[in-house]
Amino acid sequence: MKLLGSTTSPFVRRLRVYLTEKEYEFVNLDIFAEQDRALLTINNPTKKIPALIDGELCIYDSRVIYRYLANKFSQDALSWQQENLLTLIDSVNDALVSMLLLKRSKVDTQQDALFFNLQRERTESVLTALDKAVADGQFNNWHYPAICLWCLLDWVDFRELAEWRSYDQLVQFFEQNSTRAILAKTDPRV
Ligand SMILES: N[C@@H](CCC(=O)N[C@@H](CS)C(=O)NCC(=O)O)C(=O)O
After folding, report:
1. DSSP structure string for 169-188
2. How far is the CA of 101 from the centre of ligand 1 (A)?
3. 176: pLDDT confidence band, cut at 50, 70 and 90?
4. Residue nearest to atom 14 of ligand 1 (CA)
5. Same domain, yes or no, for 90 and 60?
6. Which of 7, 19, 38, 172 sits most deeply, having the most CB atoms within 10 A of its CB?
């Protein structure tokens, strides 16, 4: 199995963390460089990472890749509650990826305009919901949604895209899990 990705993508990192101790090859791409982009496009026409190559099959989208892998490793599917947690996490991750790409396109993302206001509102309401979910014990185990939440929070810090440290439960969750060896091993800063 080959995982096409980059060291900086939070969508890729969640799968690298999930795949700890599994046999696979990580293909680290610079998706904006011509050659790597061509390789990515051949495998995934959406030109997004991650993509997973397993034999003849190429699976796109971290959520679908996770479903594929959980099935391959005979693990239980996520519960509907966990699927909803993942939707919350992905909604902020997608909103902030858009903000990052806009920033890199020299657009002022701090401006008071509909698109930016919607992303800010979404980020705030989702972080509030995730903070409550942590308080309710929904992230007590290191399951896939927990991995995804930790990778999101660390990436938001790394890219300086939003402030989540005012959410006490999120901070507690983040710190409780920070010592896991795989997180140091997949740190986008190194
Ligand atoms: N829903 C996708 C999102 C993946 C995604 O947005 N990946 C980013 C990197 S963090 C990407 O490839 N962006 C390239 C682009 O938008 O052109 C997933 O879960 O895999």
Report:
1. HHHHHHHHHTT-HHHHHT-T
2. 11
3. very high
4. 48
5. no
6. 19
